[in-house]
Amino acid sequence: MYALSLRIEIPAVRPSITVKLSFGERPFEVDMLKASAIAERAARGDKIFAAYHQGIPVAYLFTTTRECRVGEIDDWLEVKPNEVYLYDAYTRPSFRGKRIYPFLITKVAEYYRNEAFDYAMIFSTENNASSNKGIERCGFNIYETVYYRNFLGWKSWQTKIGERHVGSRLRIED
């Protein structure tokens, strides 16, 4: 898990191509996702943010200020007040490597900073080097590492918690 304090300066990240952002208070069409998934998440109060290049959606991510399932580790994140969890980020393969992902993350972080939030959190697996690089480019720091195994239905979690200022917790920590 990564966290970014929204009380400090958020690093500026510029994409290598021109993109326009859409901040979704309500669901809108993104052809990379099923409309039902967008509507379901919006009904829960989650928001979708998308980046467009020449009118075509090229990247998106969702945010929530409520509990959210972290599929990669089969657990729930209990999001505390004044904190936001960024999740399910995606960039079209032909647009990867153009810094759209970190640009989108920083713009979303700025959005929540302006809404007086204290921390933004995001999760990535250890083997997803390109996502980790993008997240770290945005100024996020690792505050918790989760080792998850599922062997024939037997699930095991181990956590390694570093310096943590966020209040949000995974259920496995209880």
What does the radius of gyration come to? 16 Å
**Main sheet characteristics:** 7 strands, mixed
Helices and strands, in N-to-C order? EEHEEEEEHEHEEEE
Structural class by sheet pairing and helices? alpha+beta
Number of domains: 1
- Assigned CATH superfamily: Gcn5-related N-acetyltransferase (GNAT)
Would you kindly provide a brief summary of this structure?
The chain has 3 helices and 12 strands. By secondary structure, the chain is of the alpha+beta class. The longest helix is centred in the middle third of the chain and has 15 residues, at 100-114.
Provide tags for this entry.
3 helices; alpha+beta; Aminopeptidase; 174 residues
Topology:
Elements: E1 2-5, E2 20-24, H1 35-43, E3 47-53, E4 56-64, E5 68-70, E6 75-78, E7 83-91, H2 100-114, E8 119-122, H3 129-137, E9 141-142, E10 144-151, E11 154-161, E12 169-170
